[in-house]
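Quick one, T. Sequence first:
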Amino acid sequence: MTYALRVFFVGGLTSYRALFGWLSPSILLTTLFATPIFQILLFAYIGRTAKLENDEFYVIGNAIQYVSIPCVFGMVQMISGERYAQTLAFVLVTPAGRLPLFLGRAFPVVLNGAAVAVVSFGVAALLLDVGVRPSSLPSLLAVAVLASFSCTGFGLVLAGIGLRVRETSVMNNIVFGLLLIFTGSNVRLDRLPDWMQAIGGSMPLTHAITAGREVADGASLADVTGLLAWEAALGAVYMLAGYAFLIFMETQSRRRATLEIS
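Structure tokens:
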């Protein structure tokens, strides 16, 4: 158990540090914290001009939706980056259990995603003068963590695909766009076509965004238990599916000698 915990925490932290170690602080902070604020401002002013929704609607929706950048991009890059650097074989040849090895890499990504949501929400709320009751802030933090967890599980599934495809950046950007459209971050779900609502309901972040808006309007966590339960269930399913998919892709890559072919 002690060995597994060391692999989970130390291995995950080391992999996370390696992921961002080559970036200068200015690039890292701009990508993770400045960009989501500009995205929020963009949609908020579009909403004002078109007289659609209030600023709170866009602040909550985009702050939670933007966790997809650290969660999807970070999770995929942790795996495909090892492959690109030709160090993946050395990681997989170790006797470390695959469960703490892969899920340990997901843990710091979850915290990173929640931090992005919290900072972007806080700054954008100040800039747009969005008032949220202080008593709702702990509940919003819990929603952000849960959203980050479910999106990281989704990223783990995409990381398995990253073991086979040659280049993952295009895939990641397409997924980011899909999450922006289908999760209701800028358009209410009930205004989308039925088929888009069905797809959005099975994607991460959708239920968390809805729950976050209700909490910001004064609802308690108990009032949004159903939404949070759906988000947690989706996150767990994606996380387990991603883990199983990584094991499958690892086995196939060993058989076909394609583990580090890019």
